[in-house]
Write a structure and sequence with these properties.
The chain is mainly α. It has helices at 8-18, 27-33, 38-66, 68-88, 92-109, 112-123, 130-159, 164-168, 170-181, 196-212, 217-236, 240-250, 259-283, 285-289, 295-318, 324-348, 356-385, 387-399, 402-405. The radius of gyration is 21 Å and the shape is globular.
Length: 409
């Protein structure tokens, strides 16, 4: 890292604090404890994703027009409101409302912080470092997730219930809010503040550039390749929780503890090890991409590998293996974190710097549309057939889409 790089610690701190969502390793278990079916859980995920999708364009334009930093601050305010609703209210309807507030946060945030990083590299003449630099910042995020897993397990062990985690998660988000306030204004990109007329013209210009992305075949395939894989990961990753819970309860250890506390210990350890591994994977994304003859080749092969791993995880769960699906999910998590910096770099090569937030929001928008489809379908299949067959079917289905999203090598 450049010795004069004063922004990297702030970028890394942002990712570390953002991933201290203590409820994340237990979210499906929280909903199941509240009496929700897998279809209802999938529907909640779809509510979040559809609401995020609806808000993606206006929030992306807002970021490019009024400032990426303001967009990030609004995101964290919406997240905090969501956590409060989850903590104080219960039931499917209230959870759906909390998901809408969460969607506001996702829409304001998605693509925007990546645009801040890419703008910083553009201003400092270090654009060739995109994969390695973003990989290192993402590594800090994944390390935050590793610490998050241990703290979350400790909270469940001490309190004996899950909902406290929503309240405690507000603390790191308030700290991150103040961290974002320290970002320099030049990272907002090319803004033309002025009267209402000039702002309106800028919004129209940004919107035109946003829509123009859909006329670029290379950019479009890159977006769908990245979004398709991320949607698959996003809609399936939490299904590791019931798999680990079943594994934990099958172990002849901690038998004097309640089932919830026994599960919390094992879940915390498993997620800690997973995110330590993904932290290293994010740092290694640049070296990984150079093992292939081109960045496009690495992206294509990793797409196939990811869908294949999900199929195998589902098949192993279906066959009632206990530890094997966890190990396969570990590979899936690692692969996702190897891919993400490569995808951001590949997509950013197709998009003008001044509309970077809008461009990356396109990718997030496509991801949320696909995740909104995958989540309830997966939930329905899990209710009807079980978690294992549901994962295997979805993995096989995404494998079949490869030829449509294969990028140029």
């Amino acid at each position: 890292m450049n010795q004069k790089d004063r922004m990297f610690p702030r970028f890394a701190l942002y990712g570390f604090l953002k991933n201290l969502r203590f409820f994340d390793p237990f979210l499906i278990l929280i909903f199941r404890e509240a009496g929700l079916s897998f279809l209802q859980i999938g529907t909640l995920y779809a509510v979040r994703d559809v609401a995020t999708n609806i808000l993606e364009i206006p929030t992306g334009v807002f970021a490019d027009t009024f400032g990426r930093r303001k967009s990030m601050l609004m995101a964290f305010g919406a997240y905090i409101v969501s956590f409060l609703v989850f903590y104080f209210l219960a039931g499917f309807g209230w959870y759906a409302l909390a998901m809408v507030f969460f969607a506001f946060g996702e829409a304001f945030r998605s693509g925007t912080h990546k645009a801040l990083i890419l703008e910083y590299l553009h201003l400092t003449g270090r654009e060739s470092e995109k994969v390695s630099y973003y990989g290192r910042t993402r590594s800090a995020s994944q390390f935050g997730s590793a610490i998050n897993a241990l703290i979350a397990a400790g909270l469940v062990f001490v309190t004996g219930h899950y909902r406290t985690m929503f309240l405690v998660a507000i603390i790191p988000y308030v700290l991150d809010f103040f961290n974002l306030l320290t970002y320099p204004p030049e990272l907002d990109g090319e803004l033309r503040p002025g009267d209402v007329g000039s702002i309106w013209e800028q919004m129209k210009s940004t919107t035109r550039d946003f829509l123009h992305l859909f006329a670029e075949p290379r950019a479009l395939k890159a977006i769908f390749n990245s979004a398709g894989f991320d949607a698959l990961f996003k809609s399936t990753k939490d299904y590791l929780q019931p798999i680990v819970e079943s594994f934990a309860l099958s172990l002849p250890i901690f038998l004097a503890l309640s089932d919830k506390r026994r599960s919390a210990i094992v879940i915390g350890v498993v997620y800690f090890l997973i995110y330590l591994s993904t932290s290293y994977a994010s740092r290694s994304a640049d070296r990984f991409s150079h093992r292939f003859r081109s960045l496009g080749r690495a992206i294509n092969l990793s797409f196939l590998a990811g869908a294949g791993l999900l199929f195998l995880a589902g098949a192993a769960t279906w066959a009632q293996f206990t530890a094997l699906p966890i190990l396969i999910f570990l590979g899936f998590y690692i692969l996702h974190n190897l891919r993400r910096p490569m995808n951001v770099s590949y997509i950013s090569d197709q998009i003008a710097s001044r509309v970077m937030a809008s461009g990356l929001s396109v990718e997030s928008q496509v991801k949320t549309v696909l995740a909104a489809v995958f989540a309830p379908v997966l939930g329905y299949l899990a209710d009807m057939l079980g978690v294992g067959p549901a994962l295997a079917i979805l993995g096989a289905g995404v494998l079949g889409l490869y030829l449509l999203v294969r990028v140029e090598e």
